[in-house]
């Protein structure tokens, strides 16, 4: 048997130790605390599954799950449609292509908190001004102060911010599609829509999968957007799971209880991601 | 020449060694002073400078971060506790005191120079009646009003709830905005709420609620209804604007009154130094003699009981409590002092002085609600929906839920 070069161990083991100490260990610690009544400091005792049972009866956590899923699904759909369209446009032979690419990517590089305050200003002053001038009643007030509409404001910020990144992924996908296929299709008399449906889309399917999984996971974790725009308000209309964990755990002195919530949330996000990968990979093709 | 340079080198090395050991002998004590008020950073810096002049071997490092309470809690989780702390006298302080990491001040001579009312407010926040901190300053909820605009309409400070509503109606009849409400920021709702609750929720509400002898439903109906009534007198879109915008708008004279704590006075005057403003206690009941001002401990000074330098830390706390320094602090910060014989004389808040003198002071009710309930957001939701009964039921069920965890 050929001896494996020790250099490979030198490449993996340091990273493994770092990952274990700073990621795996805290996660395990969190799971441990979810079975206690720890408030974040001081003494604590074990309470078994009490935190998890209380969680089942917590209407507030339930509402937070509903909001988080509503937000994540809507944002994922809009972001993916939008960035696929932008990517198709940028992949065509147009002028100023690189400039456009750079401009679309800029929002992704900005800190959400900073952008959030700008959007806050837009929703507070600029949108109502436009709404009043156009005589649209619903827009003439700050939508972030409206229980039924505040989540739309969060979606707008999220979509604007993250479309650039997904566009980039789709672009790199589009560049893997060989030009010959389109030429052949043209000879066969396929129209633009048929080309997209039968060549482009199936061939970039792996990128579609990864885009859906990444954006869904990211949006389920939504935090900064809400912190900057509404802090979960009005009432609890825009309270996401992560915000609830933060508010209850750190501000509310329910460290152990919200850690239990986090453990449940981890399992939920993990299962959704695995499910998506499984379903979406089935329909990927290989020419 | 060569020998000269080598001698120089030796001399230099010697000088450096002596310098180093001298610095070592001076034994500078370094202490961290963690405090939660952004607007007080400069004032504390000035006081620290003065203190360090008097005590050259103590170095006080002020540390202020945004969301100070959250940061402090996560530091406690890591057992990384600041030496000296200036905290708000609220539910979080009680939790920290209960965790058993703060010094016991019962025997401290300087504690008796502070007002007992505020000491008791702090004791009520945690178990037992030990003093885990020294009250330093007090703040108050107020109704700020634009004196010039009041004069234009010939209005006086209202003394009863009925007069209060009448005043608001007169303003509306003259096409003015009575209140600028900033209910996009849920916490700002707590200012009028605390006035209403403190005056209306009756004796020992918190104790009895904790013992399950009473409910929000039986004690808070009037509180909720009166709060809801205020919405009639706000500007357009009361849920669209937050605290910063409210300060700006009131400074620009967009409303006659602005329900905020005294801490808003400085930011408002910063954006409009010419504003002629005053402050009065919101009249909640119809017997003017009964009305109480809501005032709580703004800053409580305390220290880590296991600090490496207890004498130095205590020295700093004692220094801050000296009458001269306490006066300096409240003059700069427009707050009230918990130190005896130190009074706020600023004309803006002169109408509040009678409450302090006669002791008609009630603590902030919300400092005793478990913070896990997030009462501000519950109230914000109620003001959107307007269903008093459902709201009171929610308060009770959330209280029970949080207590049972």
UniProtKB/TrEMBL annotation, chain A:
InterPro entries referenced in this protein's UniProt entry, alphabetically: MetI-like, MetI-like_sf, UgpAE/MalFG_permease
Residue ranges crossing the lipid bilayer per the database entry: 7-25, 64-90, 102-123, 143-160, 199-220, 255-275
Keywords: Cell membrane, Membrane, Transmembrane, Transmembrane helix, Transport
Domain ABC transmembrane type-1: from-to ranges: 65-276
Subcellular location: Cell membrane
Domain of life: Bacteria
Stored Pfam families: BPD_transp_1
GO BP term, pick one: transmembrane transport
Entry similarity comment: Belongs to the binding-protein-dependent transport system permease family.
Name under which the protein is recorded: Carbohydrate ABC transporter membrane protein 1 (CUT1 family)
Organism: Halanaerobium saccharolyticum
From TrEMBL, chain B:
Key words of the record: Cell membrane, Lipoprotein, Membrane, Palmitate, Signal
Signal peptide: 1-26
Name of a matching Pfam family: SBP_bac_1
Keyword Nucleotide-binding recorded: no
Name by which UniProt lists this protein: Carbohydrate ABC transporter substrate-binding protein (CUT1 family)
